[in-house]
Amino acid sequence: MNLEDVKKYCKAKKGVTETFPFDGETLVMKVGSKMFLLTNIHSSILKISLKCDPFMSIDLRRDYKAVEAGYHLNKKHWNTITVGEDLDDEKVKFLIDISYDLVFKGLTKKEKNLLQSNNASSR
């Protein structure tokens, strides 16, 4: 996967926006008002930071060289993944899905309903 593949995969999900809230190089993918993926668009090596279940994070960091504690993030809940290292594309997509789902579940009921109604009206 490359950066464009990651962006395309994320933007296909309900309620996702692409933002640069910190600076001109840190891409943040949000569902609703909350971020679920961060990456530096100028880095020569694609690394993405994703939210993850803390217990799953322990196993991922043990089993994959590509998975490290989240860079400048809460290390209990975030991992930084070097894309293309020892995780195949399907595993990366799976981890993106987990991050998206965890963040979506944490949205307020009002925000979830708004995203779901926007999705229904765009069909």
UniProtKB/TrEMBL annotation:
User: Keywords assigned by UniProt?
Assistant: DNA-binding
Looking at the record's lineage, which domain of life comes first? Bacteria
MF terms per GO, please?
DNA binding
One Pfam family matching this protein? YjbR
Give a yes or no for keyword Magnesium in this entry: no
- What protein name is recorded for this chain? MmcQ/YjbR family DNA-binding protein
